[in-house]
Amino acid sequence: MATITKRNWTNKSGTHQAWVLNFMDANGVRHREQFDKKRDAEARRTEVEGQIGKGTYRPDATTTTVKAACESYEKELSGRKKRGEKVTQEYFDNVTGHMWNYIAPAVTDAPKAKNGQKGRRITFDNGIGDKKLAQLTARNVTEFRDHIRDAGVGIVTTRQILGTLSRVLQHAISKDLVATNVAKGIRVIGKRNEDAKKIVPPSKDVISAVIKAADADFKIKLIFAAASGLRASEFHALRWSHLDLKEGSVTVETRVDSKRNEDTTKSTAGLRTIPLGAHVVKALKEWRLKTSFKKDDDLVFPNSLGNFENHKNMRSRVLAPTLAKAESAMKEAGKPFKAFGWHALRHFAISTWIEANLTPKTVQTFAGHSSLSVTMDRYGHLFPSDDHRHAMDAIASSIFANGA
To answer: Residue 103's CB: how many other CB atoms inside 10 A?
Structure first.
């Protein structure tokens, strides 16, 4: 049973009073907390008695801040990264960016920037780093979410930031710093159509013009990317052992991040086998004869040293000039041209599968989407609807034509 006693004392500044909460936790350890106001002590007593009754009371939660929990989680991730336990540098940078730019932003405590000076790339002044874990509530997290959105952060990034906060609190639970994860289950809902991404892929004329404008070595890269629909991270991690040129297929099982760290695909949905057309297989066979890196363990599309290609360099050094050359050729022919990024080759591949009447589920599988809803949200408008309309006409005429 928790009790509250009044404490009075006098010093040079006058007479003072405080309210002292005394209680014993489930392990028999006595605790003492002091408050300036009786109502605060009463509120804390109600809270503590409820936590002790449910077995969720954690004494360190009253003194440990969210910022301290973030520091502990960063230390944990750093150790896992050094041990090679599926924490890539890219993931580490993203998570620590969420923590020190949004969750617990403080210029003086932020990690060092690349120039050696401490600071943040993002200005956000509504973090929750100073909150004690015991004081953090679902309402606090909801308000934090709203502040992020008010700062102009998109739905996806906001979800990622809250995901990092949830993992920080889960880590705190594992360290017995807090008993519950109040960030778990907090949803991020955007405005109508804000998160909808209706894809408009490049036209066949544009893709054809770009392939025609490319040099011989880049041409095979464009053809393969536009046929296979691989993500850039999967494309650059592709090895000859992943290709079955006899059966005509590619198996996707690895990826490489922006720091050139190789890993498995992000999800089990990313593990997939995609059939390849005869022309694509022929081009790959010719490329294997030509390249200096043709062993099974060699990369299919490496840099000049046989290592992972720098995607950013490839885009600026090779793709951009090729697009410019194709644009010039199409303008001379009086045809419209709209430049695109490398990822549009994936969109083009998926659009050709849809045009070839592959089922939505098959498209989802070949694309490596985590769910059918992702496929339909992005590409549903590309699926033909005429057959559906004719089916509805047939149903209506057979059932409702005579007023049934």
So the answer is: 24
